[in-house]
Write a structure and sequence with these properties.
Layout lengths: L3 H13 L2 H8 L3 H15 L4 E4 L2 E4 L1 H27 L5 E7 L1 H4 L2 H12 L3 E7 L4 H7 L5 E7 L12 E15 L11 E2 L7 E4 L2 H13 L5 E5 L3 H9 L5 E4 H5 L6 E7 L3 E8 L7 H19 L2
Parallel strand pairs: 3-4, 3-5, 7-11, 8-9
Antiparallel strand pairs: 1-2, 5-12, 6-10, 6-11, 6-12
Length: 304
Amino acid sequence: MIEARHLRVLRAVASTGSFSAAGRELGCTQPAVSQQMKALEASVGTPLLVRTGREMRLTQAGEALVRHAAGILAGLTAAEEEVAAIAGLRAGRVRLVSFPSGSSTLVPTALAALRAAHPGTRVFLEEAEPPKSVELLREGDCDVALAFRYQGAAGAEEWDDLVVRPLLTDRLVALVPERHRLAGAGASVAIGELAREPWIAGCPRCRGQLVEVCEGAGFTPRIDFATDDYPAVVGLVGAGLGVAVLPQLAVESVRPRGVRAVALEPEVRREIVALTLPDLAQVPAVTATLDELARAASDQAAVR
């Protein structure tokens, strides 16, 4: 019989390449990992791993089992949580993955409300940008992923296999130093007016979107600095080192000192959503988390 704990160990060995590295990731010893792999191979009746030098390589049977492991483990998690709820257990666990500006704006409000309504529910928070956060969800490593995609962007992700809870539409704004010639501009600024400016770019996903929008306006931005840290972007703009384009939610997550936010033309928006797997959508703790994220997003939109 295949046990879930053995599948988790097999996935760790496959991703790290060795028993010792898998043990460090799982918080157990190398002999314990080796023993569990022997037990799993005995259960399936065929070798799953072969040693090549210092690394472990999956056999064809091992590759097949790892391929199915994510769905099996996600299904088991859903089953455990649903059975616990039916049995009247006043507890739950939700593994939430969010991108940074969501973590500092939507997530705190949602989790505070969730704790007040369901104090027995525990939430574990990890940060990751899409598409990595969506990969973690599909691989069974989280229960809810806060993600976004740009409207009309080429190669936008397909989420047809997931449960999608729309939360918020977030527009991009330009950031310029407060003494910049466009700091006192009217309702909006055409992005082409910034063509000759040095640029500070954000996360890789936002950086790609920036280049795409600028090239659509007929120029390629000269990116002098690039950082995943939104406060750093704001600080560099405030110091007069360039201009930037950030999602409004990212600007709201920091204290923008020394900068001015200006609406952009053409308007660019991103869709912020909460994602989960169909099986997990039936779990009460997951449903409650989705509901509170939706309420937090509604509150955020109301104050804009």
